[in-house]
Amino acid sequence: MILHLRRSIVFAVACFVVLGLLYALAGTGVAQVLFPHQANGSLTADGSSLIGQTWTSTRWFHGRPDNFGPYAANPKQGIAGGDNPLVANGVKGGSGPTNLGPRSKTLVADTRQLIAWWHAHGVDPTTDLVTTSGSGYDPDITPQDALVQIPMVSKATGVRPAVLRRLIASQTHGRQLGFLGSPYLDVLALNRALARLE
Amino acid sequence: MAYAWTIVVLVAALAVSWRYLGSYMAAVFDGRVHWLGFVERPLYRLLGTGPDHEQTWKRYAGALVVFSGVSLLATYLVLRLQGSLPFNPQHLGAVPPGLAWNTSVSFVTNTNWQNYAGESTLSYLSQMTLVVQQFVSPAVGIAVAVALVRGFARRSAQTVGNFWVDVTRCLLYILLPIAFVAGIVLVGQGAVQTLAGPVAVHDPLNGVTQVIARGPIGFMEAIKQLGTNGGGFLNANAATPFENPTAFTNLFLAFLLLVIPFSLTYTFGKMVGSRRQGAALLAVMALIFGTWVGFTSWAEHQPNPAVAAAGLAHQPTGNMEGKEVRFGDTSSALFNVASTQTSTGSVDSSADSYTPIGGFGMLTGMMLGEVSPGGDGSGLYTILLFAIIAVFIGGLMIGRTPEYLGKKIQAREVKLAGLGVLVMPIAVLVLTAVAVSVHAGRAGPLNAGPHGFTEILYAITSQGNNNGSAFAGLTGNTAFYNVIGGIDMLVGRFAIIVPVLALAGALAAKDVVAESLGTFRTDKPMFVGLTIGSILIVGGLTFFPAVSLGPIVEQLSHGRFF
Question: A41 and B212: CB-CB below 8 Å?
Fold first, then answer.
């Protein structure tokens, strides 16, 4: 027993030094040398290309409604909002999905509200535009999600639909390696390209 | 079609690893790998032990239990004291006692159930301390599996190996090098790895300011998957782009969590001297896993009923509630099935928002006892318990004393295997019954109706199987759930490990009987079918009533919302 205890303490200390400290520090060192941009969060002048934002104006293409409409941060209802991984509109929280089940009345009501919002802006929404993501800040939408928003964006910006269609095509990433996941657009990059166009 | 290619690539990568990683792991545990001897030998001197100091199963189990106790206490202390310790850029205070208890049990038992949001609760030092357990707990699981395999391989032996040596070799030669390389790959794809604190960014286009959590995430992600741990740095786990940035990393992470549990069947075959025996266990694992991936992926490609009821019936991209665009519906389902059936529990999409059949797939994947392929080490030793039960049933049918790998399976072995198989269902069903009987338990669920019951059942199943996956709507950070969850996880880990080691000791002591014409062959399809049957019947008989109150009734209640 005493022998087990002594060995356990020695082994636990050795593990802490090697697997806790050295692993994380060496990993950080290698990551910072090889991939400094990615390792620090893929930050650009307008935000991180990996963290979705809530697009406040109909001049911009919208992403998933993670912090929007019924899902916007609301301290009274205990909704942290998904947009900011740490602080959403002043409410402290973490990343996360809504966790609403497939037969939840709340989910039905929230989705109705979002569908109505899109219809009021002349958009026939796709699934991604009325459902929230797993992380709470999905940065991407599919090409179809962008195409259906053309009437809204065109009306607010005055850019012709044909030009927006070309813009969407130019910003579309195919499936990774040709077969992985879904085709997608990074909403931040899309809107940055739209800003350059204007 | 694209999804079919995803599966083909995953299967091909696992097949190659099965052969070569499996063979390499056998060499590691046979003591034929020495390239880090300059670290290994001084450590043995410090411990006062070494490969020549063989242990009986009782000493092996004693070392394991004492070491796990020390790990538990050390992790608990770091979580409680994090406010006064370094690597705390957000100046976070101490983790409360109930949560610190649940979290330290969770990581020491390879469960990684998380009742906290990592980015707003834990300092970087606390996260690094959890990473230590993400290495050590799978190494302990693999060591137990290897001890059991030695029980089959040895003849008339008193010892089953040396706990310290097995764990050290597993860490140095298997987990650490693979995790380090995987960490570099993940960061290259976009995972974050920094010691700098959160960053505030302002988007002048949009007029929005965000505060973005960062940290040493990428390398934790690597061992979290490879070690079938599942506890991520961020609350939303592998759904977040900082943990799982691309569709490639999604597949890569699924590969990492499957690779060791599947490959260990090759290691087993090699160590007992017959690869066909390992291939038979692989077939059991792969057939169950493939079936579950198939129907869960199909279910997630269906429309979400609530979204359809709200007016959007046409959902060509499947059930996207709680899923990320870059993965899509089916790849998300693949990840979550792989994670629930390896006792990992990481998620790349919200399990709570899966369709009823999708949720059924994840829940029942755990209820089968985590054998398809199960966690690192725990998958192999649990499936060997089922194999013993299968040969016992086979023996009853033909009226002959059963044998497995030349070892006579007698009353003691069958009792130990039965105990190991039944501990988890008993813990899960009793604790679920307690949780739905008391107010503190019923206060947990977010969703109403059968889905709320599923949230409770899922949580207790997950912890009892040392999985850590969650229907995360459940408010788990309460005194009640922290305490019973901790008990659930400890029982699900050690009340199985100790009988397994006792079994290893009992088997090692036996001599091998010669194979005869009447021997039931355990490397043939008949044995594969009998083992699958045993797994499905034990899981089905124990859990069918509970599951029928959750996902099954939810699926059948067409048109009703709760």
Answer: yes
pLDDT digits (tens, 9 = 90+) for B184-212: 999 999 999 999 988 888 888 888 888 88
Full strand arrangement of the beta sheet holding B199-203: A91-92, A87-88, B208-212, B199-203
Taking alpha carbons only, the member of B361, B547, B345, B552 closest to residue B464 is: B345
The amino acid present at B436, given as its one-letter code, is: V
Residue the block writes with tokens 């755990």: B366
Distance from CA of A119 to the nearest CA of B (A): 12
Backbone CA torsion sign across A34, A40, A45, A51? positive
Under an 8 A CB cutoff, do A39 and B187 touch?
Answer: yes
Q: What is the rounded distance in angstroms from the CA atom of residue B271 to the CA atom of residue A148?
A: 59
pLDDT digits (tens, 9 = 90+) for B81-119: 999 999 998 899 999 999 999 999 999 999 999 998 888
Q: Are B199 and A47 inside 8 Å of each other by CB?
A: no
Yes or no, beta carbons of B219 and A24 under 8 Å apart: yes
- Taking Cα atoms as reference points, which of B415, B416, B419, B428 lies closest to residue B466? B428
Domain spans in chain A, listed from the N-terminal domain onward: 2-39, 43-197
User: What one-character DSSP code corresponds to residue B94?
Assistant: P
Determine which helix (DSSP H) or strand (DSSP E) holds B203, and give its type and residue range: strand B199-203
Q: pLDDT digits over B312-331, tens only?
A: 999 999 999 999 999 999 99
Q: Which residues of A fall within a CB distance of 8 Å from B69?
A: 8
Contact (Cβ atoms closer than 8 angstroms) between residue B333 and residue B359? no
For chain A, how far is it from start to end, CA to CA, in angstroms? Answer: 75
Q: Which of residues 15-44 of A touch B (CB under 8 A)?
A: 15-16, 18-21, 23-28, 30-32, 34-35, 38-43
> Which of B75, B319, B321 is the best mutation test for A, with the most CBs of A within 10 A?
B321
When pLDDT is cut at 50, 70 and 90, the band that residue B514 belongs to is confident
According to DSSP, residue A138 is labeled -
Phi and psi torsions of A123, nearest 5°: -115, 135
What single-letter DSSP state applies at residue B216? B
Kindly determine whether residue B239 and residue A97, on different chains, have CB atoms separated by under 8 Å.
yes
Contact B219 A23 (CB under 8 A): yes
Which residues in chain B are closer than 8 Å to A14, comparing Cβ atoms? Answer: 43, 46
Calpha distance B64→B163 (Å, rounded): 7
Are B264 and B25 in contact by the 8 Å Cβ rule? The answer is yes
How many pairs of residues across A and B have Cβ atoms under 8 Å apart?
394
Provide the shortest C-alpha distance from residue A162 to chain B (in Å).
Answer: 23
Cα B180 from Cα B127, distance rounded (Å): 17
Average pLDDT, integer, range B433-462? 96
pLDDT at A89 over 50: no
Contacts of B312 in chain A (CB under 8 A): 111, 115, 125, 127, 130
- ipTM for the complex shown: 0.94
- For residue B216, count other CB atoms closer than 10 A to its CB: 25
For residue A84, give the nearest of B128, B202, B211 by CB distance.
Answer: B211
A114 contacts B315 by C-beta, under 8 angstroms: no
Task: Parse chain B into domains and list their residue ranges.
Answer: 2-268
